[in-house]
């Protein structure tokens, strides 16, 4: 299964620290991984002039389980956010968000 983790869905999101500020991040991918035992593999596509498109793939992420379902979701969404931040920092000019992400900012 492939899904985006940087697109918040109103009925499936949590406020999680993202680039130092609370942001709406979807929890569905983490919830699914916790329920199924699947690993999460983060990847991002990028473009390099004169080289074309490439794919950056992070190491598989095994979900942390504490015994508290809500805590498990929040901990693991934060870990996913860390990886997403790394991918965006590598090429910030190639990341665009068309949905409200940070609550203190006006809707787009």
Describe the protein.
- Helix content is 29%, strand content 22%.
- The protein is built from 2 helices and 4 strands; from the N terminus they run E-E-H-E-E-H.
- With 108 residues, the protein is an alpha+beta fold.
- The two termini are 29 Å apart.
- A hairpin with a 2-residue loop joins strand 1 and strand 2.
- It has one domain.
- It is globular, with a radius of gyration of 14 Å.
Please describe the structure with a list of short key phrases separated by commas or semicolons.
108 residues; 2 helices
Q: So what's the overall shape?
A: globular
Oligomer: single chain
Determine the mean pLDDT: 87
Query: Approximately how much helix is present in the residues?
Result: 25-40%
Protein structure class: alpha+beta
Strand order of the largest sheet: 1-2
Number of strands: 4
The whole-angstrom Rg is: 14 Å
What is the H/E order? EEHEEH
Counted by DSSP, the helix tally is 2
Q: Largest beta sheet, briefly?
A: 2 strands, antiparallel
Alpha carbon gap, first and last residue: 29 Å
- How many individual domains? 1
What share of the residues does DSSP label as strand, in percent?
15-25%
Given as residue ranges, the uncertain stretches (5+ residues, pLDDT < 50) are none
Summarize the structure.
The protein has 108 residues and is α+β, with helices and mostly antiparallel strands. The protein has one domain.
SSE topology sketch:
Elements: E1 13-18, E2 21-26, H1 28-36, E3 43-48, E4 52-57, H2 69-90
